[in-house]
From TrEMBL:
Ranges where the Response regulatory domain occurs: 2-115
Example GO BP: phosphorelay signal transduction system
Name listed for the protein in its UniProt record: ANTAR domain-containing protein
SMART domains cross-referenced by the UniProt entry: ANTAR (SM01012)
Residues with the 4-aspartylphosphate modification: D51
Keyword Lipid biosynthesis: no
Length: 191
């Protein structure tokens, strides 16, 4: 496992490194903001720990942009915060936003928290994407059934049976047949 520590202040970064004593993996410290995203991509860390101290709004937003791009657990340490910064960190995908909590003894538990929250959020996103995909498929199948019902003057169960029969005879999924029906209908100038 690789951990990237991002901190412009070497003394603060050493606190995080101390908290990771005994960690079995690679630890990389990034001390500057120039080319930050490229350096993170080069390291390809599994976890990112950012210690920002007391950042300006612009610096905070810059780090939030980095966290939006990374699909990894991120723990961010700041000295002070406000509700807007916390909300922005959540929107940016920060797994743990720790205010005034930089202490070596807290690093490992916060690291575990960030990983667990990231994994839980990733599962929720996957479930949401799956649900949206199923809903879109259902809408396409319903549209294909309506097209068949209108064009052939058949009932909904008969339209679904036609889709299913064609899917089985061509060894394809019903959604594939439904998409073909909808596409053909649209090409033929259907409404």
């Amino acid at each position: 496992m690789k951990i990237a520590i991002i901190d412009e202040n070497r003394a603060r970064a050493s606190i995080i490194e101390e908290g990771l004593a005994g960690f079995d993996g690679e630890i990389h410290v990034i001390a500057g903001r120039e080319g930050l995203l490229a350096r993170i991509e080069q390291i390809a860390p599994d976890i990112v720990l950012m210690d920002l101290g007391n950042p300006s709004r612009d610096v905070l937003e810059e780090y939030f942009m980095v966290s939006r791009v990374l699909a990894r657990p991120i723990a961010m340490f700041v000295d002070e915060s406000d509700d807007d910064a916390i909300a922005a960190s959540i929107d940016a995908g920060v797994s743990a936003y720790v205010v005034d909590g930089l202490a070596a003894g807290r690093i490992r538990p916060l690291l575990d928290l960030a990983v667990k929250r990231f994994n839980a959020f990733a599962r929720l996103q996957a479930d949401l994407a799956e649900a949206k995909g199923k809903l879109a498929e259902r809408e396409t199948i319903d549209r294909a059934k309506r097209i068949l019902m209108d064009s052939k003057r058949i009932s909904e169960p008969e339209a679904y049976a036609e889709l299913r029969k064609k899917a089985m005879s061509s060894s394809r999924r019903i959604i594939d047949i439904a998409e073909a029906v909808v596409t053909a209908h649209d090409l033929m100038g259907g409404n």
